[in-house]
Amino acid sequence: MLSKKKTGVTITDVARLAGVSTATAGRVLGDYGYSSREKREKVLSAAQALGYRPNLLARSLITGRTKTIGVVAGDIQSPFYASILRGISNVAERNDFGLIITNSDENIEHEIRSVRLLLEKQVDGMIVSPCDPEGGEHLVSVVAAGIPIVQIDRQVHSLGADFVGVDNKQGAHDAVARLLAQGHRRIGMIGELGYGDWSIEEFFALASAPSYASDSLYPSWQRLHGYVEAHREAGVPLDPMLIGRSRSYSAQGAQHQAQMLLSNKSRPTALFTADGLMTEGTMAAVAESDLALPDDLSVICFDDLDWMGFVRPRLDAVAQPRGAMGEAAAQLLLDRIAGNDEPEKRIVMRTRQIVRGSVAPPRALPGQAVSVTGQ
Amino acid sequence: MLSKKKTGVTITDVARLAGVSTATAGRVLGDYGYSSREKREKVLSAAQALGYRPNLLARSLITGRTKTIGVVAGDIQSPFYASILRGISNVAERNDFGLIITNSDENIEHEIRSVRLLLEKQVDGMIVSPCDPEGGEHLVSVVAAGIPIVQIDRQVHSLGADFVGVDNKQGAHDAVARLLAQGHRRIGMIGELGYGDWSIEEFFALASAPSYASDSLYPSWQRLHGYVEAHREAGVPLDPMLIGRSRSYSAQGAQHQAQMLLSNKSRPTALFTADGLMTEGTMAAVAESDLALPDDLSVICFDDLDWMGFVRPRLDAVAQPRGAMGEAAAQLLLDRIAGNDEPEKRIVMRTRQIVRGSVAPPRALPGQAVSVTGQ
DNA sequence: CTGAAAGCGCTTACAG
DNA sequence: CTGAAAGCGCTTACAG
């Protein structure tokens, strides 16, 4: 037995009470077209008396615009997406847009399902964090249908849609360069590094070329590129054994990789983590170890999370402007929805190095000679 | 200049290509009513060929149901709401429902605006975390209009809508009792404690009566009630000076309250924080102090956040089943939408004490005699 | 099982 | 400035 939803007050009811046509009532209530002050007041007070609320569905069916944007996030529960969503939500509310939110869980089937739902709900545009750089046919067809997409954090090759992200290479480069300047020579990195048909060795070879461009790669690879560049500039040789590749966005995977790295007899003296989830897994591994930060191990994390400011030691981080990324993406999308047809835009935002005390010069490890050169 | 949205393929197009009426096409595509295998196949292949996607707006306009639920959260960026939303989202996706999300920012005007938007978007039901226990007229009118509401975490008095929350009193009681059992006699609490027309002294007097019921109060007051009960059971006198009342959901406010408490010459030897945000502020204050956990100060936090498991020392917490709360609320709402008209339901979920090492017996403070009784 | 017709609640030309 | 009419893309009785 379905509960029968009361068919609320309609524009027809208002028009009848006000003694005008539905067209006139519509013009007043929808604030389009002309209306005399007299009719206007009649309609308004009738609407008030009846408690009229417009049915946006009906309006959208005609206008072809829903004033709704859809989002496909990786996982709305993660601090990264939660902050981005907040930024998107701010802009949406400010512009009287609704927001439909879905998760892909980094699964292409889910992503396709989400996009279909958003399409059927007739969103005016979408913000998507695509989970497969190569699997974007479903997105191509959205764009082809004239529905704007803004990609966030990650992108599909040759989709030709706007993009908002951060300068991953620069952020990682600066963090790793700081560790190198402190004298670290064995710097571990824990990253997702999932897509990519190459081994770490092969990527090192590619990325060592000064002309190598990683712009279209996934964030963790761009961050590894920054790692490589910092090493090249410092003249420090690369060691593939120092790279922990979790291959999926999972704290457990990262924890496992960090444990492996730290239990090695020639363990790294510093760790660079490639995102929030990798940081959580890595810190869990560190907490289980006997290592004291920063004396036994220096750490810098990509993405600054709330708690990093009040644990001991406080953790150094590469901060991404997550809220601003969401706002920029939403604003760009609204511009597109409003008809802005300038060429494809790429907004690459700057990261910020946050120094708090989780970096110190390396100490000599048992059985190892460490030459501290520093800056 | 508005970009003209291409009016996609409609059921009329499909019907024409398939050589059937729109009614028949609708029956096949919408999977309602009868259809012969022959027509069915024709319609399906025509739809496939044209790339038909139903326009859910049109369907909803007729059926009066949008298969969409709306959520009014406090702040989707907080880990508390982010997890709840994930739970809601899981159930929604599983049932092919869309999800429209808004924030109230604990501001009644925003909440009213959000509810209006959801109403105009014709959601089939709402999940709301109301920000004012007394200000619920806008919610009353929603329920009166036949649109089900499930309240989460907090509730409006006498709204007569379902509710999903946790046993705040019990959770707080057990945490504080554990501190008392360790010998703590001066236990501070940092909480929002915003609504309520009483002072802490007055509340202590009220809540000391064994028959006092705090079920309809805001969570932080219920948690303070648990604090009071644990003290009464242990025969430990209450001291209003030990309660830091931030009066708003703000980490800064909590930090300030914690600083005040900790800088007092007869400072507490243990702290109980009443929610995630209070914990963040409190931990910031602790990080700035000279106090070492757990030797100088024991801590238990209400709400278990990811990072509490891998900081040092790991933090003890009262875990709320946030994801399950969201799932339960969404499931209950879907039941109501499906027509379940049983009497108002209250789902009160259990918390779980998580012991990790941030609690130890108190040490004597300079200039104070401490009698450790504990077990 | 199928089709013609009406209609959901609005907005949009089009006359006046 | 206003109203009668048509129509957005579907679903729903109602005949057949």
Which two protein chains have the largest interface (Cβ within 8 Å of the partner's Cβ), and how many residues from each? A-B, 71 and 71 residues
CATH-assigned fold name of the largest domain in chain A: Rossmann fold
CATH superfamily descriptor of the largest domain in chain A = Response regulator
Q: Return Rg of chain A in Å.
A: 26 Å
Average pLDDT level of chain A: 92
Main beta sheet of chain A: strand number and arrangement?
6 strands, parallel
**Uncertain parts of chain A:** 1-5
Counting structural domains of chain A, the number is 3
Number of helices of chain A: 13
CATH architecture of the largest domain in chain A: 3-Layer(aba) Sandwich
List descriptors:
homodimer; 375 residues; alpha/beta; 434 Repressor (Amino-terminal Domain); Rossmann fold; 13 helices; 41% helix; DNA-binding; transcription (chains A, B); transcription regulation (chains A, B); HTH_LacI (chains A, B); Peripla_BP_I (chains A, B)
